[in-house]
Specification:
By secondary structure, the chain is mainly alpha-helical. 76% of the residues lie in helices and 0% in strands. It contains ten helices and no strands. The protein has helices at residues 3-25, 34-41, 45-52, 55-79, 84-100, 104-115, 124-146, 156-171, 173-179, 183-194. Helix 1 (3-25) crosses helix 2 (34-41), helix 4 packs parallel to helix 7 and helix 5 packs antiparallel against helix 7. It is elongated, with a radius of gyration of 20 Å. The model has no long low-confidence stretch (mean pLDDT 83).
Length: 200
């Protein structure tokens, strides 16, 4: 990446982060104007339109940027190659940290965007991010099997469905507001639920 490209990416990131901050400061983030964004980001209005085209497109990019950051952190956690339990707890805490950074209005609008279906009836964005998440979890479950922490009787397909139920449950707005205080408990229950039976 040359100097010009680096400066361009830095400006884009600055605008994304400024918009994210404004959207999470305002309970009704639909009231944020382009003027608010450029003032907070300290950039010209033409710069915003040059990189993002419209306010609507910028907001979509903010949602994508937010999820990408969470996924990148999750990949870093996986790359640390810690034990199955430590990794699962760290991944759970990463998700809760992400949810704690955003307000309810931002979360609901982001979920609307990610679950919006195309003409073929599928949500392309949700499919993309779900696939990345599931691949990481599959790697983690394989690690758990090698460590003797995941019962071999559970197939990959079942484990992925099990994980999907948990993810979709936590993503429910009525649940995610309360789950933060119970990260350790529900992670412990997940671990116990798929552990081998130690009874003789």
């Amino acid at each position: 990446m040359n100097g010009f490209e680096k400066r361009t990416e830095e400006k884009k990131k600055k605008i994304l982060e400024a918009t994210f901050e404004l959207m999470n400061r305002d309970a009704n983030n639909g009231n944020i104007t382009v003027e608010d964004i450029v003032k907070h980001a300290n950039v010209a209005k033409t710069t915003l339109f040059k990189y993002f085209g419209s306010k609507e497109n910028l907001i979509q990019k903010v949602f994508e940027h937010s999820i990408n950051q969470m996924i990148e952190t999750a990949k870093e956690i996986m790359d640390e190659n810690k034990s199955f339990e430590e990794t699962l707890i760290a991944l759970s805490q990463n998700k809760i940290r992400f949810l704690n950074q955003i307000n309810k209005s931002f979360y609901l609008k982001m979920m609307d965007y990610f679950t919006e279906k195309s003409e073929d009836g599928f949500s392309r964005m949700m499919q993309h991010y779900t696939k990345q998440n599931f691949m990481m979890m599959l790697d983690l479950f394989h690690r758990g099997r090698k460590e003797g922490k995941v019962d071999l009787k559970y197939s990959d397909e079942f484990l992925m469905l099990y994980f999907q139920v948990i993810v979709e449950g936590v993503s429910n707005p009525k649940i995610y507001e309360k789950i933060g205080n119970y990260t350790e408990e529900w992670t412990e229950m997940l671990i116990k639920g798929i552990a081998p039976d130690r009874r003789d």
